Amino acid sequence: MADDAPRPAAARDAPGLAEQRFRSYFELGLIGMAITSPTKGCIEVNDEICRILGYERHELLKMSWEQLTHADDVAADVARFERVMSGEIDGYSMDKRWLRKDGQIVHSIISVKCIRAPDGSVDHFVALLQDITERKRAEEALRIANERLGLATRGSGIAVWEIDFPDGTFEHAHIQRMNVEQFALHGGDVDYGEDLKEVHPDDRERLQGTLHAYLSGETPHFEIEHRLCGRDGTDRWVLSRGVVTRNGAGKPVRLTGTALDITDRKRAEQRLHESERSLGAELSAMASVQEVSTRLVRAGDRTSLLQMIVDAAIAITAADMGNIKLFDRQSGVLKIVASRGFERPFLEFFDRVLAEPGPFTEALCNLERVVVDDLAASPIFARTPALDVLRTAGVRAFQRTPLVNRAGLLLGMLSTYYRTPRRPESRDLRVLDLLARQAADWIERLQTQDEREKLLARVEAAHAEAESANRAKDDFLAMLGHELRNPLTPILATLQSLRLEDRRALRVELILIERQAKLLADMVDDLLDVSRIARGKLKLLRRRVELSRIVARSLEMTRSIVEERGHRVRVDLPDSLVVNADEGRMVQIVSNLISNAAKYTHPSGTIEVTGERDGQAAVLRVRDDGMGIPAALLPRIFDRFTQGPRTIDRGQGGLGLGLSIVSDLVRLHGGSVHAASEGPGRGAEFTVRLPLSRGSRVPSGPARRRKLSAAPAGRQSSILLVDDNRDITDVLGRVLRLRGHAVEVAYDGSGALAVARRFRPRFAIIDIGLPGMDGYQLARKLKRGFRSSPPTLLALTGYGQISDRKRALRAGFSDHLVKPLDLERLFAILEG
After folding, report:
1. Going by C-beta distance under 8 Å and a sequence separation of 6 or more, which residues neighbour residue 494?
2. Distance CA 814, CA 764 (A)
3. What's this model's pTM, rounded to 2 decimal places?
């Protein structure tokens, strides 16, 4: 719309006319204009802006354009404004919304240009505002705007043109153009025909048709989008609008208009169109990924799911073939697990690829995608056997995408292949990355599941092995107890027999043997108690019992060790302390504490046993003046197998289980035990706290052991004694005969049945572990064989666990006696 021709003389303006024209253009109603300050204030505004925004001029001159801007557009406008202020740009254009005084929103296109002072700072801004909500302009407003627009266009970013029709036709028309330099055109006056040559050839006919239709009155507006061909070879899109001025006869005299550069918008529209097309393809690919993801979450057959991943990759990348390889970390090999479109030669050649640098493992080594868009031109395959295999398979291009877990470790590769040289679209590769992420997560989940199942299998095997070992340990302890108790029974029974015979000459030896045998029996009981407590198998038989009774029984049980070492025992506790406890286990607790005090106190020392009430608790203390406890030992004094330092003159031994058992038993009773010592040589004190019991009266007075003597007259019984251990059978039979009982013995089940039919005993003492026919079987046969008057059955065994006792009672035994046999208890049963 411009060339280098000189302006006509009639068009050359005087300086005064230029100022007048500037003011005229400024007030042109075609577009809103404003002069603003660097502080965003309005220095001058035209009527169009006032009309568009609904404010009076004096109101706008008191406001800043930022106040008038729609809140959502402030940030974008301010950002461009700051770029101008910083000198980065001199002007800008943008779509922008305004808020009218009446609250309505006005949509516009604004162009802003700064006028700089000689020092480069911004002196003021010239802003053009085009109301694209209201396109119709008043003719008078357009005339005024044209007069003032000339001066303002230098900073507007919008070209202004004006066509004069001297004779009312295009034949002699010429056009004056301003600010067209932005389109790489020359400004000034040119003939209309020359201007038309600068319109893109494809748009000329359409432009002329639109212009003629407007001037002839066929259309009410002149508005068209077309291209201009710049002298620099670039095409620019413009939006041309104009308003005609007619004479009294209705012929056109002047056509005034603007050309707005919309190149960026048109390019954006083109990009949007391409983006929409790309988005449609991407959405289709994403739907495929979503379907794969859904099926992977639901799980299913692994082979079919791997094949589904390959098929999805082929579809996403518009490929012809594909496969997926999984990486075996132990062997360092990539192996094909699913493929599509390949024959056997390809699959056999690439079935297993070693994970080392090479043409097929770049993605593996670098964890990056490899794309070969032309196999023939790729140097990495030149003169390699793989090239022939790929060509034979029809491969001309491919891509390989590594499958990497979230820790950055390689899981495999997903590859697709093309029959023609080509490169996958970036869009397709982005979607493929999503598929690869889904596949990697699923593969890692499968591998984790496999590892978990293997680990679970190992744990279950280890657990089974531990259970087996634990059962073996329990069986061993039970067998150990049984085997240790077997020899103890005849030893103790022999001692009882000798006592009954009153062999005074052997009194000292008998006492020594009895003490050592009981010590051995106590060790066995400690081992078994520890095992029961550890497995939670120890049960308490609670009843209300006085603490004084428990202490009396405990002193009776520890009398031998106390007397042997010449200790003085002082007891001070009231009879009113009553606890709800297992009396036997409480005796075990107190006797262990007294025995411990006796062992670690020098001969002729003092042991004090005291008790008192403390609120709702009974407190029992066992104090000695012996060796004391080192401070380092106190925190673990109740641990199993813990003992104080031994000295040469302290030979009581022990397994280091007594205090551990005390702690466990007290805890089972709901109490606590505490050890204290001021150090070596200062003695020790053990304090037991137990909850007090409330309720009815309890038995009082210490339990007393019976003296061994003959059974009371009239209470002798007939007894069948059955045990395969002849020593036990013979010695126990002898003791029972000395008590005045009639005794028959048998060493196995069949012999016992024969004796029972002949002897018809009142009691049958039966060892459980008989050879052939065990004690349970023998008991059932005796019950069936003597239905009218069966003997009372007493089980005799080395197995003393609660389960053993329950089984014996279920088999028909009236009582369960554990070796080494407590003869006093046996006598009480037989003679009670």
Report:
1. 731
2. 10
3. 0.35
